[in-house]
Write a structure and sequence with these properties.
324 residues, single chain, mainly alpha
Amino acid sequence: MNAVVNALRSIGLAALLTLPAAPALAQGALTPEQLTLRVERLTELSQRTESKLGNVQAQLKQLSEDMSRLSRLIDNRAMLEMIQLVDNLSEEISQLNGAIEQQGFDIDEIKKRQRELYLDIDRRLRDLESGAMAAAPSQPITVPQVATTPSVETPAASQTTQSSTPAPAPAPPPEPAASSSQTTTASISATPSVTQSEEKAAYQAAFDTLKEGRYKKAKTELKAFLGKFPNSSYAGNAQYWLGEAHYVTRNFDQGITEFQKVLETYPNSNKVPDAMLKLGYTFYELKQFPQAKQILQDLRQRYPKSTASRLAAKRLDRIRKEGY
């Protein structure tokens, strides 16, 4: 900028010096007074030019400062927008992390319950092979009532119902009568075989659906099986797994209802100890600890040698350590 001002100053002086040269050459030599007058005029013009150049220089300086200030404002605004964008992205990332953690927790819970389900299956198979399961006692099992359902007379009513109408023991479907003379021996022996095969296929299909974790469909298939084959040798198992499906999906109130049906409708089933164990677990999940302790202690008294009894002891110890 200073170089521009100096150049303008030089050009102005040169122009001032050259302007009076033509009249001087035309008129000849000037007197000393005329030369002095011209020098004074040139000096005055030079001072005016320097003053104008100074004003121009000041304006240029002010303009430069304004441009610098504007540049800083633009940079600050861009920085603020960038900071705001980073904050928004950080908030979205935090929300996504929270959602991922929740999904991970849900997946872990599902895996845990599936693992418990498979371990439960293996335990029952071992119990069946070793003959650890004892026969169901003749005394009816009293299931504690859920705290949210005030009903004092329900256990007594349940016992009265059981004593007046004994539950059917699980047994294969009855064979067709052989009184008709037109019924051949082959047809008599074939009908139960086909029925048992159909029962087994229906039960296995529902059980496979449950193992695959498709609990909603498994509930539907198990209910359909119990409706179609109420006296099947698989009915007690199907009723237990229906309760298990509700337990795994945390539908605890309905789970209690289904497990209780195992005790009331299939008292001779080898699933009775397991149903009592899961009733205790369900009451524990509902934080109804007195009911949980009652059913688990009853289980230990009735089936002391079973695996379910050992698991009941562990859960009772856990309840005790938790201060309930």
